[in-house]
Every structure is written in C-alpha cells, then in structure tokens.
Amino acid sequence: MATQTDACLPELTSPPKPVFDSKRVPGNPAIWVGIFSELTEFAIFFVVYFIARAHYPDEFNSGPLQLHTLAGTINTLVLITSSYFVVKGIYALRADQPEKAVRWLWGTLACGAVYLAIKCLEYLWNQEQGIQTNTSNFFAVYYYTTFNHMLHVFWGSGGILWAILRIRSGGFTATNHNGLIAAACYWHMIDLAWILIFPLMYVLR
After folding, report:
1. How far is residue 75's CA from residue 11's CA, in Å, rounded to a whole number?
2. 5-56: per-residue pLDDT in tens?
3. Cα dihedral 72, 75, 80, 86 sign
4. pLDDT tens digit string along 115-152?
5. Residues 6 or more apart from 190 whose CB is under 8 A from it?
6. How far is it, in rounded angstroms, from Cα 167 to Cα 114?
7. Which of 85, 142, 157, 176 could form a disulfide with 108 if both were Cys (CB 3.0 to 4.6 A apart)?
8. How many CB atoms lie within 10 A of CB 186?
9. Contacts for 4-12 with beta carbons within 8 Å, 24 or more apart?
10. Distance between CA atoms of 42 and 53, rounded to whole angstroms?
C-alpha cells in the first residue's frame, strides 16, 4: 500500500526543472564579448554601405537588380528556420530529451549547410554573369559583406556541432547547458546580421 512518503518519492528523485531567469544574461560573458565584436564589425560594413551608396547612387540602384534575388530569399528563409530549430533544441534539452534536442540541432546544421551551398552556387552564378568584386563599388561591398557573413555561418555551424557532441557525451544536460545557450546566441546573431544584409543588398533600390 502506497504511503504518503512513497507518493513524494518521484517528486524528490526527479531532476530539478531549469528555470529561466529573465534577469540573467543568457550564455556567458565571453560569448557576448564575441557577439558585440562581430556586431561592431557588421555595423562598420553597414556604415561603409551607406557612405558608398551616397557617393555612387546609380551603382547601388542598379546593383541589386543584377543579383539572384531568389537565392537571397531562400537563404533568408533557411536561416530563420535554422534559428527556430535551435530554440526547439534548447527546449527539448530542458525537457530532459537529449536525443530530440540533438535531432533539432542537426536540423540547424542542415540549414547551415544549405545556406553555404546556395551561397556558393550564387557566387558561381555571379561569375557566369560577369559579376566580379571589381565590377562596381556596389559589388565590392556586396562580396565583402556576404563573404564575411558566410564565414560566420561556417564558424557558427562549428559551434552547433560542438554542442551536439557535448549533448551526446552527456556534457550538456537539462540543468547544465550554458555552452549550448552561448552557441545559440551566436547563431541568432548570424541570423540577425543576414536579416539586415538581405534587404540592403537584394531589395533596396
């Protein structure tokens, strides 16, 4: 016959549920130093973009018309989807479902790979159209900004892969996964940067 003490045992032995603290900065100080450094770098790119646009308006008005807008649009959707997968992975791990978390994070990596593949194909398409870094000032800014962002996607993918390996080895658990949060913050920064890059390079006339 179950006693009152027995009824309490599941509650006592179950792992504590992580509580989100809105007053605590997610991740760790080191990753935020890196994020702010990267955001500063992209901010400089955007300043250069607007200065160049002010001096060469015709080139910046005609430049986006020559780009493969569909490729940029698909990559935007891919990155937004990847950020959704990261969040789902975090929630799964917090629910003590590491295998499910890993599957969501593999989805993020797949999105990163799709982004990189599309970007490489886009560059090849540009070459076929005769679009080079020295074609115009617009394309110099375009190549420098988008290639730099592509490198960040590659680095961010490495961070997500590291988080997957940590989960599979038991290093990250439902109550201890600060490194995953840090990797997720960096990935969201990459996503945010592209959301700003896309309209400037592909849409704004």
Report:
1. 45
2. 444 444 444 455 444 454 565 666 777 888 888 889 899 999 999 999 999 9
3. negative
4. 999 999 999 999 999 999 999 999 999 999 999 999 99
5. 79, 149, 152, 153, 156
6. 23
7. 85
8. 21
9. none
10. 16
What distance, in Å, lies between the first and last C-alpha atoms of the chain? 76
Q: Are 166 and 92 in contact (CB under 8 A)?
A: no
The alpha carbon dihedral of 145, 110, 84, 101 has a sign of negative
Cα–Cα distance between 82 and 118 in angstroms, integer? 15
What's the chain's Rg over C-alpha atoms? 22
Q: Determine contact, residues 184/86, Cβ cutoff 8 Å.
A: yes
CA distance 98 to 158: 19
Q: How far apart are CA 158 and CA 152, in angstroms?
A: 10
Q: Are residues 52 and 60 in contact, defined by beta-carbon separation less than 8 angstroms?
A: yes
Q: Which residues contact 125 (CB under 8 A, 6 or more apart)?
A: 68, 71
Tell me the residue type at 177.
H
| Region class of 17: left (phi > 0), else alpha (psi between -120 and 50), else beta | beta
Residues comprising the chain, all counted: 205
